Amino acid sequence: MNSPLIQLLVLAGIAVFLILRLKNVLGTREGFEKPSLPENEATPTSRRDFEVIEGGPDHDIVDHVDSGSDAADALARMKRAEPSFSVGEFLGGARGAYEMILMGFERGDLAEIKPFLSDEVYQSFAEVVEAREAQGLTIEAEFSGVREMTLSDATFHEETQTAEISVRFIGEMTSAVRDSSGEIIEGSTTQMKRQKDVWTFGRRMGADDPNWQLVATGE
User: Fold this and answer.
1) Would you say residue 117 lies in a domain?
2) Is residue 7 part of a domain?
3) Residues 6+ apart with CB under 8 A from 199
């Protein structure tokens, strides 16, 4: 057997060996290639991209009070008692109620605002209005708007399902007290003043009546 033939046989044997090795590697999917996932399965990375993280903070609460505070806990329990309850919507209603109730009191017109007052608050308002009328005093007031409003506290009583939320208001208004002759004896019809109040609204969660009542006033 001559030398060129021997070299040809050696090269052929090497080629067969390499082909068999390559076939074995591809058949077992080893090396750097990983098996593909079924079409209905996403990779761990893509699953994380679309997962909704449960148990996160309720921004309807923590946007208004500190997370982990007693007030936050009370608001959370209110929402469990009445899932449709929204802190943001409550504060929107409280803003409107503040102007309506404050102006009703200033002008001595309590009939319109009575449904939004607890019996105790209504009685205290009525006594002040009656005392003014007895002295022949009237109040001329105009409300400019709420400049600041913050939720300052919240409590929830499980046994009665009664909720109370305190809101701090800073409003701007003009207010003048006139005597029986019409003379201004206090305040001004043109000079703006700031009115600061902390009002507490109460309601039984889950009740058919959605209206909150003013149950306490302070500064």
Assistant:
1) yes
2) no
3) 94, 98, 166, 167, 169, 214, 216, 217, 218
pLDDT at 57: 86
Residue 173 counted as domain residue: yes
User: Residue 171 is which amino acid?
Assistant: G
Up-side HSE of residue 123: CA atoms within 13 Å toward CB?
A: 4
Q: What tens digit of pLDDT does each residue of 79-135 get?
A: 999 999 999 999 999 999 999 999 999 999 999 999 999 999 999 999 999 999 999
Beta bridge partners of 174: 142
The pTM of the full predicted model, rounded to 2 decimals, is 0.73
Structure tokens at 212: 């909150």
Q: Please check whether residue 41 lies inside any domain of the structure.
A: no
Total domains in the fold of the chain:
1
pLDDT (tens digit, 9 = 90+) per residue, 130-175?
A: 999 999 999 999 999 999 999 999 999 999 999 999 999 999 999 9
Tally the residues of the chain.
219
**Tokens coding 108:** 């001595």
Please check whether residue 137 is in contact with residue 179, taking contact to mean a CB–CB distance below 8 angstroms: yes
We report the CATH number of the domain holding residue 168 as: 3.10.450.240
Question: Taking the CB of residue 34, how many other CB atoms lie within 10 A of it?
Answer: 7
Residues spanned by the domain of 167: 66-218
The HSE-up count of residue 204 (CA atoms within 13 Å, CB side) is 7
